[in-house]
Amino acid sequence: MEVRSTYKYARISPFKVREVTREIQGLPVSAALDLLAFTPKKAAFLIGKTLKSAIANAENNANLKPDGLVVKEATVGEGPTLKRIMARARGSASRILKRTSHIRIVLSDEIVIETRETRKAKQKAEKKAAKKEVAGEATQGAATAPDEKPAKPKRTPKSKKQSQ
Q1: Which pTM value belongs to this model?
Q2: Structure confidence by residue, pLDDT tens digits, 111-127
Q3: Which of 11, 45, 127, 140 has a Cα at 20 to 30 A from 116?
Q4: Residue 152 half-sphere exposure toward CB, CA atoms < 13 A
Q5: What Cα–Cα distance (Å) separates residue 8 from each residue in 3, 126, 131?
Q6: What Cα–Cα distance (Å) separates residue 110 from each residue in 48, 49, 133?
Q7: Nearest-CA neighbor of 41 among 61, 69, 19?
Q8: Is 27 helix (H, G, I), strand (E, B) or coil?
């Protein structure tokens, strides 16, 4: 089941927030909270508030335990831009754009949490399967083509000291 939480009109540029949201996507909730707690950015604080809100929604509205939740999606949309004016030389003015963003976090309990240990075990199993395939092909190739000539050994280039 999916649970979501949205922080609208956050007074920070979406570009700055996306940098932090990319880091927490796909992580278990506990790991995401730890990562946000030790990230020294304003965006990490705002995303942390939104993530805690999503966890509370999961507990209260959907009766889910926070232990099995994973950050399925963390997106940042652009909110309305506040336009301000700063005085410049000779009575002219320049525009200042104060950007806002909408932070949306979706949690899910359906995604399998993959840890380092499970990922390494999966990679080892894939390597073993690949080795078995190569070994099986080699034995089949040797049985079907015995008439092929063996490859010539490569010559090693002579060093400069020997030629002088």
Answers
A1: 0.68
A2: 666 667 788 888 899 99
A3: 45
A4: 3
A5: 17, 44, 52
A6: 22, 23, 33
A7: 19
A8: coil
**The pair of three-digit structure tokens given for residue 17, joined into one six-digit string:** 């927030």
The string of pLDDT tens digits covering residues 84-115 is: 999 999 999 999 999 999 999 999 988 666 66
User: 21: burial class by Cβ within 10 Å (0-12, 13-18, 19+)?
Assistant: buried
Give me the helices (H) in the chain, please.
Answer: 14-24, 29-37, 42-60, 116-144, 160-163
Per-residue model confidence (pLDDT) at position 18: 95
Class of domain 2-116: alpha beta
Residue 144 has pLDDT above 70, yes or no: no
Residues 6+ apart with CB under 8 A from 164: none
Comparing CA positions, the residue from 82, 79, 84, 111 lying closest to residue 1 is 111
Alpha-carbon torsion angle 12, 14, 20, 21, nearest 10: 130
| Secondary structure class of 157 (helix, strand, coil) | coil
Annotated domain spans of the chain: 2-116
